[in-house]
Amino acid sequence: MTIIAAADGSALGNPGPAGWAWYIDESRWRCGGWTRGTNNQGELTAVLDLLRQTAHSPEPLHILCDSQYVINSVTKWMAGWKRKGWKKADGKPVLNVEVMKALDEAMRGREVTFEWVKGHAGHELNEKADVLANGAAKAWASRREPEAGPGFPGARSVGAGDDPAVPPAADGDARPATAAGRRAATTASAAPEGPADAQPELFTLADPVSPTASSTATAQSASSAPSPSDVDLVVELERSLLTDTVRGDRRRLEALLDPSWSHVCARGEVWSRGDRLAASGRPDRASAERTMEVIEARELGSDTILLVWRERSRDGSILRSSVWVRSRGSWRQTFQQGTTEA
Length: 342
Description:
Helices cover 30% and strands 27% of the residues. It is an alpha/beta fold and 342 residues long. It has two domains: 3-186, Nucleotidyltransferase, domain 5; 195-340, Nuclear Transport Factor 2, Chain: A (Roll). The strands form two sheets. A six-stranded mixed sheet has the order 7-6-11-10-9-8. A five-stranded mixed sheet has the order 3-2-1-4-5. The longest helix is centred in the middle third of the chain and has 18 residues, at 124-141.
């Protein structure tokens, strides 16, 4: 009999206190998280933990996931990344590469299928996983560890580690035993892993990122000047705004749009932040078909980044420019303009 499970991730502020979870039924589920991470890291870790928890089972595994970034990474892009030495088509490093490698290893010899489900649309298993992941993120925001859950019968304990860039060790908990060990793990994971993936439907951010992001891309430190990882993260955050998961979630939009946000659309209309939030609950049939092609990412100051990109959909293409500002350690979009491309 096939094991059917939902996997999900959550990040308050994205990045911020983050959680991950997978859910099969009331007696088989797990969750965890970190003090700082992204939606994409939560989504990826949920799938990885689920794969490892069920590794001893001979039954096929069917994973329900609302992150197209995760599904595409595993089913479409990973083979090409491996052939190129874990580099993207443009030669740049793959984001979240350590977790991606761990996922690749955990998939070997397994009969695993993925199914995309729309988030926050009433799917029972997805809703259960979402509640657990969000609860784990809230627990970490309150400086406490969430209840991990019963896990899968017969599985070995697999921890998620203190740093989301450090994947769970195959033989158990990856969490360093001492504070010094945790600092060393965080320092080791701070080496740049490269920018967000250029493929459509990111996060995850979300990996993210992204969006669907790597340790440097997601640890939005209040540094004095933007680093390559800041630009990578902003690209991931921008891409996430094209996804159903974010566009239909008022809470996530509030976290990504600056209070002074405004938008001049391709039709010449001017939208305020309030207008956009009010529209968050409306169905957007074209969102799943939108893709993003980055043309330029420019640092305008220590806390300001300009993105110029092309949005493609079945209706044509639109040239867009977006301004992102860093406030209290998090990046938010403050302005966007679109122009229909001839």
